[in-house]
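Dear colleague,

Thank you for sharing your sequence with our group. We've completed the structure prediction you requested, and as agreed, I am returning the results in plain text so they can be pasted directly into your records. Please verify that the sequence below matches your submission; if there's any discrepancy, let me know and we will rerun it promptly.
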Amino acid sequence: MSTRDIFGNDVSGRTDNEQWATWAAEEGLEAEAVDEDETYIVDERPELHATVAMETRAKVDTNHPDTRRAGLTLAAEERIEAREWEIERTRTRMDRSPESDREARTAQVVKRERRERRVNFERRAASVDERRDPDAPDPRERLSRGELAAVNQEAKRIQAGVPGAGSSAAISRELAEQVLRTGDLLSAIVAVADRLTIEPGTMTPISRLGDVRHGEVDFEGEVVVLWEPAHPAIAQVGLVGDETGQVKVTVWDASDQPWLDEGERVRIHGAAKSWYQGRVSVALTSRSRVVFPEREPWLEPVS
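Please find the predicted structure tokens below.
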């Protein structure tokens, strides 16, 4: 029967070799006999363990769907099989034909849905503007052949003269309505052209900026003169004019707009309209856009 001292050492009287063998077995080390006297040499090489990063990387590589399935759990294998089945099913065409017309049929469906949405939108817009009612009879059908030819010709001319006025078909329909209402083609042309010049998105003559019913305007003209700004928040201030009139233009410093030069032609989109002492003026904000038609492309500011 063996005994141990207060430090846990075996004092049973066993030989050193026996004590070494017992200690090696307890520590899980490998002891080998190397001579006839059974002298033991303990293998004290450290046991290697994977680091946390190595275990994490191995776990990611093992569970990745693109890796082999060896070592995966049953649930992981079933997920991979389900994913492969879904991909294969998605690639299979409905008609299982190498010359499928699925793309053509999809394009037809999309086109039909767009047309239905457009018609529904026009019907709702007709509650505000009756000219946009898609169910209303086309007034051009009530014109004679000569009147219809004249209306179509004037519609193209108005479209060319008023940038952003819309399609010539829409203009010709409105002209036909005016002709049937007034009986005079000339007055119909004046009325339609006058309305289109102050519509949103069209280039409005400067003299008509005050007639625009919305807060932002588009116009084109030449920078006539520039003044010294009276406030540090203003980058530039001056007059822009065309053949119909002039308007005061204020460029706010925070708007980050390109620099204007006197004598240069500019096309301004989305300028904020305001009134001062009974006169209309505009200001360029961060939402505005300035185009220089006569500048070289390499001189255009980078947006």
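Summary note from our side: The two ends are 94 Å apart (CA to CA).

Kind regards,
the structure core
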